[in-house]
């Protein structure tokens, strides 16, 4: 019984370490500059399609998860032009983009 508990413990330690390593991988993040560039490109495409000149509400100061930005971009693509042209409208997934300073 004692041997199997130690094996289970070792298993959970390795699982925890692998998750931690995956979360800090650089290929899961854009730099702040890359993220801002991609946001401006996405806004420009939507503005062109909807005939507006809307700017992003905030700039990214540090690294940002690629998946978070992809959710924001998808939300922008799916918004109709009437909603997009509403003053002050920003998709919720774009408001919730987290920044990492690691």
Give the low-pLDDT segments. none
Round the Cα radius of gyration to an integer and report it.
Answer: 20 Å
Mean of all residue-level pLDDT scores = 81
Spatial gap, N to C terminus: 42 Å
Strand order in the largest sheet: 1-2-3
What is the total tally of β strands?
3
Taken from the alpha-carbon principal axes, the silhouette is: elongated
> What about the largest sheet?
3 strands, antiparallel
Helical segment count = 5
Strand content: 5-15%
User: Structural class from helices and strands?
Assistant: mainly alpha
Q: What proportion of the residues is helical, as a percent range?
A: 55-70%
Give the topology string: H per helix, E per strand.
Answer: HEHEHHHE
Structural notes for this entry:
The protein has helices spanning 2-23, 32-50, 66-78, 81-84, 92-95; strands at residues 29-30, 63-65, 99-100. The chain is mainly alpha-helical. α2 runs parallel beside α3 (66-78).
Topology:
Blueprint: H1 2-23, E1 29-30, H2 32-50, E2 63-65, H3 66-78, H4 81-84, H5 92-95, E3 99-100
Antiparallel strand pairs: 1-2, 2-3
Protein traits:
single chain, 102 residues, mainly alpha, three-stranded antiparallel sheet, 5 helices, 7% strand, elongated, Lipoprotein
Question: Could you provide a short overview of the structure?
Answer:
By secondary structure, the chain is mostly helical. It has helices spanning about 1-25, 30-50, 65-80, 80-85, 90-95, and strands spanning about 30, 65, 100. It is elongated, with a radius of gyration of 20 Å.
């Amino acid at each position: 019984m004692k041997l199997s508990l130690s094996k289970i413990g070792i298993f959970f330690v390795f699982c925890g370490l692998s998750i931690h390593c995956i979360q800090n991988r650089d290929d899961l993040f854009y730099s702040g500059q890359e993220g801002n560039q991609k946001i401006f490109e996405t806004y420009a495409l939507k503005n062109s399609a909807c005939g507006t000149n809307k700017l992003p509400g905030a700039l990214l100061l540090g690294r940002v998860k690629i998946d978070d930005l992809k959710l924001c971009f998808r939300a922008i693509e799916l918004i109709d032009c009437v909603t997009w042209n509403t003053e002050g409208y920003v998709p919720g997934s774009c408001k919730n983009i987290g920044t990492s300073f690691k």
